[in-house]
Specification:
Elements: H1 4-23, H2 32-51, H3 55-66, H4 69-79
Length: 80
């Protein structure tokens, strides 16, 4: 089963893709660009969830979290 954080990231990603599909006519971007991005990203998420049980998404979220200073402070506190 997927973690709640992973599901939230997927939901935010789908919202972003929907928003990009709605805004592309305003900025004269070809509709193939958001369609290919959506296909690629959802394909990667599907492969991750079916083959790797969502571990790829967890690694990505951990990598993004490590860049935040409060995460580093918590990690330093746990080590001591």
């Amino acid at each position: 089963m997927m973690q709640q954080t992973t599901l939230n990231v997927i939901a935010i990603g789908i919202f972003g893709m929907t928003l990009s599909a709605l805004l592309t006519p305003i900025f004269n971007i070809p509709p193939a660009i958001p369609a290919l991005a959506t296909f690629g990203i959802l394909g990667l998420v599907t492969v991750d969830s079916l083959s790797f049980q969502g571990k790829g998404t967890t690694v990505l979220l951990d990598w993004l979290a490590q860049r935040r200073s409060d995460y580093r402070l918590i990690q330093d506190h746990c080590r001591n």
